[in-house]
Design brief:
The protein has one domain: Rossmann fold (3-Layer(aba) Sandwich). It is α/β, with parallel strands linked by helices. Strands 2-1-3-4-5 form a five-stranded parallel sheet, with helices on both faces.
Length: 155
Amino acid sequence: MNTSLAIEEPFVSSPLPPPSAHRPRRVLLVEDDDDLRRLIAATLRRSGYRVVEARDGVDVFERLTSSIWSARPNFFGAIVSDVHMPGFTGFDILAAIRSSPCDTPVIFITAFGDVASRAAAGTLGAFAYLEKPVDPADLCRAIARAVGDDPPGRR
């Protein structure tokens, strides 16, 4: 059963960007399952997003410390991350982002959703929490809302 967080009311730790504040249509996708990452990336690309793929939390931390990230902390409009990965978890990634000047919305996807993880994601400031199998339409709506592309009637 897919019990994803309602897209219309995601939990946030900071206010949503104003409707006129559009973020880049560039998404960092962090997923350790190669096949699932490729599938999600293809779906997002068909929806008009530029996708940068990362295979795990270690790969993300390499990108976080790169000159691109430090020079432009909001290089990505949204980050979509698996929660449970080897090395650094999605929670580790979110904590690092929240301790930096970056305010990029983070959308979690997980196969191991439970009340404690959902609560921890909300406490850390995740934008949305979706359970696998993720409905592509739900994910695209969450990203559109995160980057400020959601049509006004859907806010």
